C-alpha cells in the first residue's frame, strides 16, 4: 500500500524544474496519473513531437485547450492575473451537499471524526 | 547591474513578471519572438505603456525595442520610486500596471507614490479593490506594512475608464522570512459591491444574492456597498462584486466578478460567491492569484528557510518558479503537506532566501 501511495504522489519539483512540459500541461495532468514514470514518458513523447515532422504553427498560447474561453485564446490577454472563471465548474456549488462539504473550513464547522 | 549574462526569453507571455524579475535582480533581459507569428506582430500599446512606466519607476534603465516591435532588450537601472503619475491605456486595467510595480516598490530608493489613471476593475487583472484588500496584506506578511496603501480616488469601468488610484509603498532594507503553514479556519467574509453609472440598487441586489449562499457558514459577514458619484464614478457604467474570506491565521482568499451585458446583478454575485467557495475549498494559506507574489518575496527573504503552505500551482506560478530560477538560481522544494493523504492537494513550498538587500535605499 505504501508503495502504491508513493507512486500516486506527484513529483511537482521534477515536473516544474526538470521537464519540458508547458505549465498548462503540468496543471492539466490529473494528480493520480502523474507518477514519475508517466511524466517522463510524456516528456519524451513531447520532445519527439518537437523534433519530428513539421506542424502547422499554432498561433495562440491556448491552442492546447480548445475549450477554454475566447478571451484567453486572444494573445493580447495571455498575461493576465485573474483567471477566467470556469462557469461550468462553478455549477457544482449549486449542490447542497457540496456547500455542506466545506463547512469544516469555517470556524463554525466542527472537525471531522 | 554587473555586465554579462543576459536572461533570454521568447514570446509575449509572462512579460510582466519577467521584467520585474530583471529589474529586481539587476540582470538584463532580452525577449524575442513577441507575437512574431501574429497577423499584427509585436508589442501591444499596453505593453509599451508598461515599459514606459518601468522606465519612470527606475533610473538609468535602458530599453531597446526592435523596429518591428517583436524583440526588446532591457538593461535595468536602479529602482528610484518617488512621486509618479502614469496614464494607462484603456486596453488594460490599472491592475495590469500595478502588479509588477508592487513587486519592485519595496526595494526602491524612495517610497513609491504612484498615481495611475484608467480602468480600475476588469476581468483580466486584479482590480483596485482586490489589490487594496488582498494583495497589499500579502506584502505585510513580509514586514512591508507601515504606510502601505492603495487609494481608490475615482472608479473607472471599461471601456471608458476615467478612474484614478494612488499606490503608496514604504521601502524596506530586507524582507522577512515567511513561515506560514497553518491555514486556520475562515472566520470572516468581507465584500465590496460597487456600481457606477447604473442604478445604485444594483449593489444591494448583489449583496442580497451573495448572502443567500454565505449566511449559512458564519455570522461575521460584512458586504459593503461602495457608492461613487459624479466625477468619481468614471466614464462608463459598470458594477462588480469582490469578496474576500479571512481565516483565523489571516490567510486570505478572494474572488471577483464584474458586470457583463445581459447578466443580472444577482447572477454576477452568485458567480463571485461560488468562485470564493471554490477558492476556499482549495485550502492552503495563500490565494491562487497571489502565489507568485508570495513566492517572489520568499526568494528575496533573508538567508534562512522560508516556508508556505499553498494549493497546487497555477500555470502562471509554474512559469514564475522556472523564471525565478533563471534570475536567482533558487529552486523551491515542493512537497505534499500530508504524505499520508495522497488526495490532499495542499503543498508545502520552501526555499532558502537569497538575502536580497535593498541597495537603492536612501539612508535617512
From TrEMBL, chain B:
Single GO cellular component term: nucleolus
PROSITE patterns from the UniProt entry: RTC
InterPro entries from the UniProt entry: RNA3'-term_phos_cycl_insert, RNA3'_phos_cyclase_dom, RNA3'_phos_cyclase_dom_sf, RNA3'_term_phos_cyc, RNA3'_term_phos_cyc_type_2, RNA3'_term_phos_cycl-like_CS, RNA3'P_cycl/enolpyr_Trfase_a/b, RPTC_insert
One Gene Ontology molecular-function label: RNA endonuclease activity
Lineage top rank: taxon: Eukaryota
Domain RNA 3'-terminal phosphate cyclase: residue ranges: 8-334
Domain (RNA 3'-terminal phosphate cyclase insert): residue spans on this chain: 181-281
Entry annotated with the keyword Membrane: no
Family annotation (CDD domains): RNA_Cyclase_Class_I
Signal peptide start-end: none
Any one Gene Ontology BP term: endonucleolytic cleavage of tricistronic rRNA transcript (SSU-rRNA, 5.8S rRNA, LSU-rRNA)
Record's subcellular location: Nucleus, Nucleolus
Protein keywords: Nucleus, Ribosome biogenesis, Transferase
PANTHER family: RNA 3' TERMINAL PHOSPHATE CYCLASE, RNA 3'-TERMINAL PHOSPHATE CYCLASE-LIKE PROTEIN
Family recorded in the similarity comment: Belongs to the RNA 3'-terminal cyclase family. Type 2 subfamily.
Entry-linked NCBIfam families: 18S_RNA_Rcl1p (TIGR03400)
Name of this protein: RNA 3'-terminal phosphate cyclase/enolpyruvate transferase
Organism: Lentinula aciculospora
Amino acid at each position: 500500500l505504501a508503495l502504491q501511495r508513493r507512486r500516486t504522489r506527484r513529483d511537482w519539483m521534477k515536473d516544474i524544474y526538470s521537464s519540458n512540459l508547458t505549465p498548462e500541461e503540468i496543471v492539466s495532468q490529473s494528480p493520480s496519473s502523474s507518477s514519475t514514470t508517466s511524466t517522463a514518458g510524456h516528456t519524451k513523447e513531447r520532445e519527439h513531437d518537437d523534433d519530428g515532422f513539421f506542424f502547422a504553427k499554432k498561433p495562440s498560447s491556448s491552442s492546447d485547450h480548445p475549450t477554454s474561453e475566447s478571451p484567453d485564446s486572444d494573445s493580447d490577454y495571455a498575461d493576465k492575473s485573474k483567471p477566467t472563471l470556469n462557469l461550468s465548474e462553478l455549477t457544482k456549488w449549486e449542490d447542497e451537499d457540496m456547500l455542506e462539504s466545506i463547512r469544516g473550513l469555517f470556524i463554525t464547522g466542527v472537525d471531522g471524526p | 547591474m554587473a555586465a554579462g549574462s543576459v536572461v533570454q526569453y521568447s514570446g509575449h507571455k509572462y512579460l510582466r513578471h519577467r521584467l520585474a524579475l530583471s529589474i529586481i535582480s539587476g540582470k538584463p533581459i532580452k525577449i524575442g519572438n513577441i507575437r512574431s507569428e501574429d497577423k499584427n506582430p509585436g508589442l501591444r500599446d499596453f505593453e509599451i505603456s508598461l515599459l514606459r512606466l518601468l522606465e519612470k519607476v527606475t533610473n538609468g534603465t535602458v530599453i531597446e525595442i526592435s523596429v518591428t516591435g517583436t524583440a526588446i532588450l532591457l538593461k535595468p537601472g536602479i529602482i528610484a520610486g518617488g512621486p509618479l503619475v502614469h496614464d494607462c491605456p484603456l486596453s488594460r486595467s490599472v491592475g495590469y500596471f500595478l502588479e509588477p510595480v508592487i513587486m519592485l516598490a519595496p526595494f526602491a530608493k524612495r517610497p513609491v507614490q504612484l498615481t495611475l489613471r484608467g480602468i480600475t476593475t476588469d476581468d483580466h487583472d486584479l482590480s483596485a479593490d482586490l489589490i487594496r484588500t488582498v494583495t497589499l496584506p500579502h506584502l505585510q506578511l513580509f514586514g512591508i506594512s507601515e504606510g502601505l496603501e492603495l487609494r481608490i480616488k475615482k472608479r473607472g469601468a471599461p471601456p471608458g475608464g476615467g478612474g484614478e488610484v494612488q499606490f503608496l509603498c514604504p521601502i524596506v532594507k530586507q524582507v522577512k522570512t515567511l513561515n506560514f503553514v497553518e491555514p486556520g479556519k475562515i472566520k470572516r467574509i468581507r465584500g465590496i459591491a460597487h456600481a457606477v453609472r447604473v442604478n445604485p440598487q444594483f449593489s444591494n441586489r448583489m449583496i442580497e444574492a451573495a448572502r443567500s449562499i454565505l449566511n449559512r457558514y458564519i455570522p461575521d459577514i460584512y458586504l459593503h456597498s461602495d457608492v461613487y458619484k459624479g466625477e468619481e464614478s468614471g466614464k462608463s457604467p459598470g458594477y462588480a462584486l469582490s469578496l474576500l474570506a479571512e481565516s483565523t491565521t489571516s490567510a486570505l482568499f478572494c474572488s471577483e466578478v464584474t458586470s457583463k451585458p445581459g447578466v443580472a446583478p444577482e447572477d454576477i454575485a452568485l458567480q463571485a460567491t461560488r468562485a470564493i467557495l471554490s477558492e476556499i475549498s482549495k485550502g492552503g494559506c495563500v490565494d491562487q492569484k497571489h502565489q507568485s507574489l508570495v513566492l517572489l518575496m520568499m526568494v528575496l527573504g533573508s538567508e534562512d528557510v522560508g516556508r508556505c503552505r499553498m494549493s497546487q500551482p497555477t500555470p502562471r506560478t509554474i512559469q514564475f518558479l522556472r523564471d525565478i530560477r533563471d534570475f536567482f538560481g533558487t529552486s523551491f522544494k515542493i512537497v505534499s503537506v500530508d504524505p499520508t493523504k495522497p488526495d490532499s492537494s495542499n503543498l508545502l513550498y520552501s526555499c532558502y532566501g537569497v538575502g536580497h538587500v535593498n541597495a537603492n535605499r536612501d539612508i535617512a
